[in-house]
Every structure is written in C-alpha cells, then in structure tokens.
Known about the structure:
544 residues; alpha/beta; Ferritin; Rossmann fold; 3 domains; 40% helix; globular
Amino acid sequence: MPRKAAEKAAPATPGKPGKTRTPKTPKEERLEDILMACRNDLRGRAAMTDKRDLLLTLVFLKFIGDRFVERRAALEEQHKGEPAELIAMIVSQASFYGQEGIFYLPDECLWEKLIQVNPSEMAVAFDNAIARLERDQKSLKNALPQQIFTKVALEAKDLKAVVDDINKIDPKRFQDKDLIGRVYEYYLQAFSINADKEEGEFYTPHSIVELIASLIEPYDGTIYDPCCGSGGMFIQSAKLVAARGGNTRNISVYGQESEPSTFRLAKMNLAVRGISAHLGDKPASTFSNDQHPDRKMTYIMANPPFNLKKWRGADELKDDPRWKGYGVPPESNANYAWILHILSKLDVSRGIAGFLLANGALEDSDTLEIRKRLIENDKVEAIIVLPREMFYSTDISVTLWILNNNKKGGIRNGRTLRDRSNELLFVDLRTWNSNVYEKKYVQFSHEQIEAVCGIYFDWQTKPEAAEGWAKPELYYAAKKEEIAANRYSLVPSRYIEFVDRDTELDYQTALATAGAKVRELVERQQENQKNLLEAFKVLGYGKD
C-alpha cells in the first residue's frame, strides 16, 4: 500500500476508536429572522420608502396568492367527484372567490407562478402583475406602487434573494391566527413614515388600538377614521367583531388619509385581509377636502398627528360648519380641529368615538371656550391618560378621549346603561407601565385592557355609580359642576385623589428614631476613641 494511502487509512489516534460526529440539527428559523433577512437583502440598495413599498408589495402578492390557492383547493374538494369540466368552470369563476373577500387571480398575478420566473425577468413580471391587479380590481385603484420593481432596479440575484425569503413566510409553517397582521405590523413599524417629525405619521401600537376598540365596541354600523394611516384601527375592529362571534359584513369602513404612500398602504393592508373599505377617491386633507362630507358615522377611531401646526391658513376655514357653536380652532394647533371634525361626523343619536390626543389638549388656554362648550353640551364621556413610551417613535404621553352622543342610557351589547348625563369619567393609567415590549416600549396586556373596560362599563351600568365612582390614584367620575369649578380643565389629576405619601409619616416617631440613632452613633464613636487611647497607652504613647 502506498505510504500516503496507508496514513490516510490509519486511525488518527492508535488504539482508540474514532469518534463519530453527530451532525448538528439546523436551528429553526423564526418569523422575525426571516423578516429581518428580507430587510438585510435590501440594505444599502434602495431608499427607505422604496424598500417599504417593495417588501409590502411582495408580502401582499404572497398572501393574496396563498388565499386564492387555498380557496381554489377548497372549491375542488367541495365538488370532488363531479365532472372535471364542471370543477374547472367553478374554480375559474371570480364570484366564488369574491364572496369570501378573496381576489380572483390570473396566472400572471399568482405568486406560485411569479416565483418561477427567470430572475432576470422578475422585476418586469412583478410590475406587470401589479398593473393587471389594479386594472382588474376596483378596490385596488391607486393602492399599489406602479413600476416599483423596475424603479428600484435591484440586481437579479438580489431580487431573487428577497423573493425567496418572502416565500418562507408560510401559514402552514407559522401557525399564527393573524400571520398577515404580524408581517404587516413588523414592516409598518420598521418603516414608520416620518416617525421623527412632529407632523409625521405615527404607527399606533396594537394594544392601544385594541383598547379603543374594546371600549367603544364597533360591532355594527359604520366605522370611520379621518386620518386612517395604514388602516390599523379598521383591522383591529374587524378582529374584535370576529372574536365576539359577530359578522364583519355588518360593519362598513370609511376612512381618509392625506399622505399618498400611506393611502396606498392602507388599501393594501385592508385588501389583503378581505376588508372592503371606502377611503375616498384619492389621498386628501380631512380639513380642506373631506372625502365623506355628508355621511354620519356610528363609530370613530383615530390617532391624529399630535399638535399639528399650520393645518389651515390664517384666513382659511373660518366659517366651516364643523366649528358652528364651538368656535374656530387655532391655526397653531389642530387638536381641537380634530375633535370638532370627529364630533361633526358622529351619528347624532348613538355615535361614539375613541381617539388619541397629546396631553396639552386637556387644558390649553387658547381652546378654553371650545372645551367649555364640549363639556356644557355633554359630549365628552371619558378621559383616559396613558403611560409614556407606548409609541415606537416618541415617548410623548397621550390621552384617550371618548365622545358619546348618547349618555342617556339604554340597552347596549347586552348591558343596561344608566343615565350618565353631565358626568365624565377620568382614568389615570400612567403607572401601568410595567409590561415592556422588546425592552423599550410599554404595551397593555389583555388583562389590563379588560380591567380598563371593567372600570368604564361598571361606571356606565351600576346604579350606585350615580352617587360616586372613585378609586384613589386610578379613577374618578366628576360632575359637570366640578369641572366648571376647575375652569373646564380635563387633567385627570385635578379630580382623581392622589395620596400624599409624606402625610402618612409620623414625624414625632420619625424624629425620635432618628435622634436615637444619632445618639447611638455618638456613643459608639466615643467608645472607639476611648479604646484607641487605651491602645496608645499600652504601646507607651500618651503617658502622663
């Protein structure tokens, strides 16, 4: 045997059996790992908004493709055993998909076909699919970014890498009740538009949306968001209705958004979930171009831009009917313009709204007269201050306002509501900040949301609440007269009792204890000095 061959055949350690290495089991990839990999595929290769549009468009195409294929398979199974020609005809009928809120997709728009295209031709294929979808589906008009793939002009291998990573987001692999929601939420948070600017779009955290929806209970009728962003309020409402066993077809969704790219995202976000929405003909300012001018809404949910400046010109909108009876909101801050716009859209007999505003709106001096009218007209039902650091892009503290056009009582969702006329519930949740998400952002747990709803619903229903409803450092139901006496301030701490911890101290006892400790220290120091002198004497120092 040749020497080299012999050396190769011999064991590495004579007399000891060779060790067999067990191959390592590959670490299972988490959903977040895949989503981050998609972002990494585009790192340094496109502008932030282009990356967002490209990724969300791919996610959109993937999920509508998955839903189409799943529905097609269900139809085939449903008609199993029937003639092949009949089955082929059924699965090719758009109506069988549309009735389930699913888009009927031709082959050129189907994800399973698109991912098989040669990488050098993928960009054109995806852009063509988008153009075809917008042409075929009325609900997608102005929803999808046109020519985004050729505009970004990724190298073929880079686009293929992104597509391959998106393809890993498989509902069969990730058993999540709302996988679409998790993916959209991740990217909308990651690419929050103008998040560092005062006038920018803020992504509304999931737990805040859930809290608003749980409080106002938008189970039927019309739901409206005058600054709908990516549509999160609508989606949470639909989820809440479904969770309570309701039918999402009993609600009609209306919204408006001024930022063009966000307008597109909202349409995509709602369409991919099968939610039919009326967002107007185009992106437009709610104040200067109301897209739903004559429609009254049952429910309104909103997170307007905080403290928006220059929302109107000095001589603009002064005689707008929305301000009638209240006064013109100052041009320096849109907070009360949002309040009055929301109030003007509410159904006069049963409309209810839940929306967020910066805390300054609670007692701004330049909006005192408007606030006074809101309280005198008994439109405000609850003021709930939230903890700081709940938003991904700002640590500002905000307040949840609830307006209600019917505080007279009656039956609502199985509860008998008492008459709460001229009462206003204040709740302070600033200390509910222990539930921290990703070591940075505060979010409410499901139990906390239920607890807030309990405070609110019990106040609405329990007869004894009419005589007083309060818990120190948490909530207080104030009468209109109390609020008037506080110059119509809506700051909860002016009404909720807060315990002064200093007054709980027994100063005499505290002083006596402190004095005893001081005496003990002095005596111990004197004893130490005495012992030190004795030691010096033993050593021959300090003798008389």
